[in-house]
Amino acid sequence: MGVLDSKIPSGPLAEKWTKHKNDINLVNPANKRNIDVIVVGTGLAGGSAAATLAELGYNVKTFCYQDSPRRAHSIAAQGGINAAKNYQGDGDSPYRLFYDTIKGGDYRSREANVYRLAEESANIIDQCVAQGVPFAREYGGLLDNRSFGGVLVSRTFYAKGQTGQQLLLGAYAAMNRQINRGKIKSYTRHEMMDLVLVDGKARGIIARNLVTGEIERHSAHAVVLATGGYGNVFFLSTNAMGSNVMAAWRAHRRGAFFANPCFTQIHPTCIPVSGEHQSKLTLMSESLRNDGRIWVPKKKEDAIAIREGRLKPTQLAEEDRDYYLERRYPAFGNLVPRDVASRAAKERCDAGFGVNKTGEAVYLDFAAAIQRYGKEKALTSGIKNPDAATITKLGEEVVEAKYGNLFQMYEKIVDENPYKTPMMIYPAVHYTMGGLWVDYNLQTTIPGCYAAGEANFSDHGANRLGASALMQGLADGYFVLPYTIGDYLSNDIRTGAIPTDLPEFEATEKAVRERLEKLKAGSGQNSVDYYHKKLGKIMWNKCGMARNEQGLKEAIEEISALRKDFWENVRIPGEINAKNAELEKAGRVADFLELGELFAKDALERNESCGGHFREEYQTEEGEALRDDENFKYVAAWEYKGEPKDAQLHKEDLVYENIELKTRSYK
């Protein structure tokens, strides 16, 4: 169905976006009143897109499965948002942000998209400040910055440890203004079940009212999918439990190519798994790596003693600790990118140096930072010759001001005071760099269907740098999509309203109802969660932090068999035409069972290691990722052909004209 034309503008990199905006078609303000746009998902990407499109004059319908847009998973982002404003005067620039992002993604992202992202980053901060987002500020009044992994500058703007929440409230306030003006119709507790195509164009969706169970038809001239990532295919992840792939996957089944599904990020600073009955994992912000030092014992006997409770980490002398990131990567230390830090933690734990009862945890220690900040605070407070207790108290106050809510959250979950004893962390599934394939305009291979934020694949390559998710979501929603969608909609100014009684709407609704009936027809032997957990274990064990050919082939067969069993034997109580949480979950898990197989197929096809995709057969002598630029310097975009095993691969070759391809080094 689609052709992989990325529509990248010609000309010098730094001029592409400006030239493109000058060249594309516009819609006159009077005509925008006659054009409808559906936005599915109301997190940072969807909320900002909906608010901006409505502000421009389009009629917007928004859909989210939560009871309020405020509950989108964007709210969980903690550490900050990147922007190249160079407030610190440490040498940052849009080019350096562009370079760090391409390098951090292990040279598997599109130059033009990433440079545009870097260009727009500064505008995002100005927009959010104008909305009243309470970014942290320095003594002189300027917005403060901190560092994140994979960079040598401080460019991350933050609001304590709740940056995502504050940014989402800004976008939500902008949405509310348009809701009050009647320009946005907000449909909460609604889930998109399918995409409706009329004459090959996206012209609406079929949605299910999650309160009443009613199946509804909604039409528009274009559909924007901003529904986040698919990390919950692993069951245990840092995502909200409702996060799913349904909207993107249903669009994929209708002809939207799915790109790089195997590019999934494992985040290094997650609270370790505590038991078999856990349903989600909690992330500790990467910002903690600014001041926390990561270590394990140097001696295995000490690690064993700590695991058995015979030794406390605070009793271990400094010379008996292995600050392994500082040892291996002296230039970046604890601030190496997430994929590098995650693999290093796994290597140490696999070697027997893990520190919790399961042996799958390392320490994140703030003792040195507390002492450093305490001495500095004592000096600036005029306290001469402070004793150790005063230094510790003052240092803890500084750390609390920067990270207090994160420390509080950790203590509530783990029941240990992280000011007094080091945090325990371990890698966990976090973000998905793969997603729907989009061109430079953020349009999928289905005309009129757009994807924004984490739902698309476009900006992060094989590994996302910390604090870049919020940047991409808001850049897409506030500054990219509102321009580019106009070029497509300029052809619809005489189309008129799209009726919902067209045969295409009827046929798509019928297919949705039949799928729900088929789900209900299972024999009832096993619960939905039974299948989701089984899928998660296959994914983590064979498609997780490390993959190999044999494991991936086994995963493909096991997931296929599990999917067959699911459709035959799943148990879904309740009715279709009523509130039914199990039916909701079943639809999402059915999609995960297809995506999981395509994920493994994509990982098997890519015979190299890059970023978050680590094939054990392809690594350097030092255990680092070994890319194969000659054979795999492309975006893998998969076309739906029925069963995942039959999916057809299309390749978008990546061209690097402004950056030299190198082996990543953070040493």
TrEMBL record:
Protein localization: Cell membrane
Stated family: Belongs to the FAD-dependent oxidoreductase 2 family. FRD/SDH subfamily.
Coiled coil (UniProt feature): none
Membrane topology: Peripheral membrane protein
Domain Fumarate reductase/succinate dehydrogenase flavoprotein-like C-terminal residue range list: 532-666
Superkingdom of origin organism: Bacteria
Ranges for domain FAD-dependent oxidoreductase 2 FAD-binding: 36-470
GO cellular component, one term: plasma membrane
Pfam families according to UniProt: FAD_binding_2, Succ_DH_flav_C
GO molecular function: electron transfer activity; flavin adenine dinucleotide binding; succinate dehydrogenase (quinone) activity
Keywords: Cell membrane, Electron transport, FAD, Flavoprotein, Membrane, Oxidoreductase, Transport
Reactions catalysed according to its record: a quinone + succinate = fumarate + a quinol
Major subcellular site: membrane
Protein name as catalogued: succinate dehydrogenase
A GO biological-process term: anaerobic respiration
Enzyme class (EC, first level): oxidoreductase
Lineage of source species: Bacteria, Pseudomonadati, Bacteroidota, Flavobacteriia, Flavobacteriales
Active-site residues (renumbered): 338
EC number: 1.3.5.1
SUPFAM superfamilies reported for this sequence: FAD/NAD(P)-binding domain, Succinate dehydrogenase/fumarate reductase flavoprotein C-terminal domain, Succinate dehydrogenase/fumarate reductase flavoprotein, catalytic domain
Cofactor: FAD
